[in-house]
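Chapter review: from sequence to fold.
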Amino acid sequence: MSNLPFRFGAEVYTWFMSGNGETHKGQLAHMIDIIAEAGFTGIQPIFTWMGPLSDPKLLADKLRQRNIELAAVALALDWNGSSETDEEKRIANDAITMLEQFPNSVLCTVQIPTGRHDLESRRKSLVNIVNEVSKRAADRGVVSSFHPNSPHSSITRTEEDYKVILESLDASVTGWCPDVGHIINAGMDPLAKMKEYQSLINHVHYKDWDGNPEFTLMGKGKVDLVGITQWLKDINFPGWIICEDEGKEALDDPDFVTLHDGKWVQEELIHQLK
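The token string follows.
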């Protein structure tokens, strides 16, 4: 999209929003087409929602056809125990095995929110699990990045959550994926938080937010996406910026949202950088 040190991609959660994944399941090939048409150069699918393209060879062929890179894969699991369940460990290992075949991709780990009960013990367990998954990935040459989120049922949403979790990550095997929309949605300043934990950042998610009640179409909200992008440019951030738009328009027309985001990045965002 430009001569910037980083690259722009798109997340498939924009399509997942409708029907909790039922509406557009099995359509990853279509999402790749739309993401390419939007001008993005990378995609981040959800590992358990890849349909026929969960076959690495079919995925690689489709990505090559559209000149799109596998920027990352989202590994979203409950992780509510003191350690991984057998099924969670199997899924994580399968994701790592797939990513071994895409050596420039990131394993983006995220906990599915299920409530803020037993907060202190569950945060500790989550960190232990994330560190263990990231260690297994690192042992096989796969880079990992942990992605907090901000629903009210999330244990990774508040400033205290960030301090406890981010400062307990094993930085030798995992990084942090700041999601600027989730950060502001939880009452924090995205750029200030990114500067505070700059050394951990190895993957970035963009969405916009207007507080009515939460997310809005990119470029229509209150997140200083230009200022954040300028800072990432200034520090020569070498990774991906992944647009994960959760504006309400995505419920009815995720293709439109993704095409809008690509146009906005190219015609509005990039041209405002110094």
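Two observations follow directly from the output. Residues 56 and 98 are 7 Å apart (CA to CA). The first helix runs from residue 13 to 16.
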